[in-house]
Amino acid sequence: MDPRFNKIFTDPENQIFQIVFFPDRIYHAQYLNATVSPRYRYNVTEVRNKLDIAILKGEVYLDGSLLTTFIRMEYRASRLIELVREKGRWLQDTVIAYLKIQTADAGRDADAQLKLHYCPWIRAFQVEIWGTLEPPEGMSHDIKALSLMGASGEITRVRNFSHGLVDIYSIRQVITAIRENDIDEPLGYAIADPQWDNNNGRTIQQPNTQDPSADANTVKLLNYEVDFRRGWYLNARETAPVRYRNGMVDYTDPSNPDRSDGNIIEMRWMLQQELGGTLVYFHEVTIPPGCIEGTHRHIGSEELYYIFEGEGIAHMGEGDDPAVSSTGTYPQKNVDVYGLGKLPIREVPVKPGMIIYTKSGGIHGIRNPGTVPLRFVAFGYHTV
Predict the structure, then answer these.
(1) How many angstroms separate the Cα of 234 from the Cα of each of 47, 239, 268, 380?
(2) Does the pLDDT of residue 226 top 60, yes or no?
(3) Would you say residue 6 lies in a domain?
(4) How far apart are the first and last CA of the chain?
């Protein structure tokens, strides 16, 4: 970690910023594979996270001299554990990852399948890919680190990754999906249907057509994309929206007055796969006059709305915000909740500067009864 950050953690007036400049163990390079010997030191230069996955880039030093660059993958497997358990099996000590690196020079892009080994120090599966396993002339590896090296080792070299690892800063994106091993350990029998964690069949939204609710706007990725770009400068006004007809309106009830060909809302999907951690999307929503985003429940995810233009009426599940339900100020109604039938909600007014924050299990929706567009930004993210 840059020593200039030390002041943040030593000056009392700065300690509030620890939540921003978080000294995670990865920046201290502890528990990385070659640190089994004190002869090796790591310089971790960049880290990206997405759900269960962490991708690290950096340099490895041997006896104080630069040995090689590396890329490391860590995977905590919460989704894959569930998929394997559904098959009546346990996830064992190794998994297989498909890994593709994309660089600034497309000619250096490469992919491979790699074995990840469970490490109890970090409680995750992991592998390190080094640019070379050869020590400098006149030097030799420590036997403790050497025992981890090899084609299927915890420290490995992938021949067609070598060009990309020449300049680790040129690696723009890592694409990955992870599966169960082919062989059950320790029993040794073949697994005929190894399960894949492919980001839960991940899709993204793109404005490929302005036809409302068109299939062409849903693009299947079926993997995790971990982005090493360090910044975005975006203009929502120059981003075409994806348009939805009767978005999350109850389709099972033909008498629902919100179902009509004219109930079309727009979403400008500004950031999706680019986001790290558990964030799934950041988008801007436009609800034209007389339209509604259907009332729906979140399970295993959260969403935050920040209204910045127009006025409207939001739906919140009865009891979701105790203060809303207890005051008697906000009307209670039974409305169609997408896929769940009629449930009680409270109607609350919204205008610029107001926030609707919905936790897992909560219910929300939003209507524009006015004469000008209602606009808000929405953050969605996984909680499990």
Answers:
(1) 23, 8, 11, 19
(2) yes
(3) no
(4) 29
